[in-house]
Write a structure and sequence with these properties.
Blueprint: H1 3-15, E1 19-24, E2 29-33, H2 36-41, H3 45-48, E3 76-83, E4 89-101, E5 104-113, H4 115-135, H5 146-163, E6 168-174, H6 177-184, H7 186-203, E7 209-214, E8 217-222, H8 227-242, E9 245-248, E10 251-254, E11 257-263, H9 270-286, E12 292-294
Parallel strand pairs: 11-12
Antiparallel strand pairs: 1-2, 1-5, 3-4, 4-5, 6-8, 6-11, 7-8, 9-10
Helix pairs in contact: 6-7, 7-8
Length: 299
Amino acid sequence: MTNQESSYYKKLFDKYFDALLIINMNNETIIDANRSVEKVLGYKLDELIGTKFSALFPEKSEMRNKSDLFNSLNDGIFVQDFLNAKGDIIYLEMTLTIIQQDSMDTLLISLRNLSKLVRVEKQLRQTLKIVKELSRKDTLTDLHNRRSLINIINNETYRFERNHIPFVIMIADIDHYKYINDEYGHDTGDFVLKEIACLLSQTIRKQDVVGRWGGDEFLFLLPETDIEGAKSLSESLRDKIASTVFQYNDKKFQLSMTFGFAVFRAEETIETCLKKADNALYQGKKSGRNKCIAARGNN
């Protein structure tokens, strides 16, 4: 290459819009950079020349701690976090091109700032996560909603098909809830639902799931549980609710709940098991409320 050609390419290199670095692949040091690097990274050129390229990455970055940084890289485009001169983490699109220069293995690196785009993408992911979470939650009680419960139960049936470990479906509702709404108003009714939801979720075992099935009905999935385990848990829940004094503004009152439950069996569908639990709940209501009733054939 003639001196004139070399001068031309040097001017092109210096004025190129994207930040450009040239790295000596043998010792991983920066041997040249253009003016756009100052805008992107905030370092002066004389601060960069001769420094290790890995020093531009945050301390905990995997790239900074790779002993074979360039041996693991080929030509390509990556999005990578960098550390600018202010100590802030920024996200740059890094385009790599291996070139020969004066019998030296060098790497031409083009850097383009994508920090705004990456931040927007992260915010979008977080928003989608929140939306997904909200789609599974009952807005009043913050428990699983009906759709979420159905998905969880379906997953449990797939597990049952593999290991045949029994599980129980239990349905419960608040006794005389309509009277509470009519007598004290819907604000009190909503308060009751939230308080009951809190008591239920605090009392069940870690592996159990509870959600709002609809209205004042709550549904429980009790994995790895037989009928005796369901009886024990339901009685514990019933006792705790019956012994709690609820207070909303100047009103104090006590409540009770009725529980119906059924063990899922291989020969039946989820719909059948839900119906059996619901029928058991109805029997409890019919026989005086504040009861825990196993489905017929489960005793």
